[in-house]
Amino acid sequence: MLSAEQIEQYKKDGYLLLKNTLNKETVEAIYREAREIFAIQINHVLGRSVDVENRDEFEQAMFEFFEKDFNAFVSTGKTVQHTVLLHKLGVSDEILNLVKGVGIEKPVIAVRPAMQFNSRFLSKDGSTHWKLGAHQDWRTGQGSLDSVVVWFPMVPAGEEIGALQVIPGSHTAGLMQANTTGYSGYITDNLKDEDFIQTEYEVGDVLIFSAFLVHRSGNNVSRNIRWSVQLRYNNLTEPTFIERGFPMPYIYKPQEELVTPDFPSASQIKEVYA
Ligand SMILES: O=C(O)CCC(=O)C(=O)O
Whose CA is nearest to atom 8 of ligand 1? Predict the structure, then answer.
C-alpha cells in the first residue's frame, strides 16, 4: 500500500523509488535463472562450465561468450527475457498492486517484460548501444497517458554501475522531440545534465515511473554487468487510450528464413517421439 504522501510525490516527481519492497528471493531467483541460461550456452560455446555464483568469473565468461559467438549471445539474451519466473513477476499481485497504487485502475501489459545486462564489455567496436540516452518510454509505448514503468536492478546499483538517471517532474513537460531511429528514440530537445538525478538501489528496491518521465541509463564504469528488469503497463480505463483504440505499437513477428538451414531432418523429429 502506498501512502497518500507517496502518491502525491509520484504525481509531482513522476517517479517513486521504493526501498526494500520487492521479494528479494524472487528477484534473486530471476537473476539466477538468467545466469543459468547463459551458463548453458557458455558451456556450449566456450566448452567450459562456469559457476554462476562467482560473479567475476561468470561475467568474464559472459564477455568471452559475447566475443566468440555474437549470434548465440543475442539469442540467449532474448531467451532470458522469456523465462517463466520473469513473466510471473510481471503478473504478480506484488507488482500489480504497486501499479494500481499509482492510479492504474485496470492494468494491461504494455509490452513483454525486458531484462537488461548493461556493460561496455558487451558492446561491439566501442559503440554505446548497451546504454540508452535520454528518452521517454511513452514514445515507443504510445499507451495510456498514465502508463507506468517498473524498473529494478537485480544487483546493488548506484552511479558506478550505471543505475538509471531521471529528471524529476519532467513527466508533465509533454512528449519531447526525439530521434526515433534508435530503439527508444533519443530526445533531441536540449536537456541539462545537472537536471538528472542518479538513482541508487539495494536488491529489493524498485523504481516506478511515468512513461513520460525523462530518463537515461547511467554510465556503467565498473567491470561488472548491471542486470536489471523493466515491466510496463497501460491503464485500460484511461479515456484517451480507449478513444485511440488501445494502440499496441510493438511489432512481434517471426523471421522469414530458417535460423538453422536444412534443420531438422525427419529422423531427428522421429527420435523425439520415439
Ligand atoms: O536500464 C536502463 O539503463 C535503461 C532502460 C530504459 O530506460 C528503458 O528501457 O526505457
Answer: 137
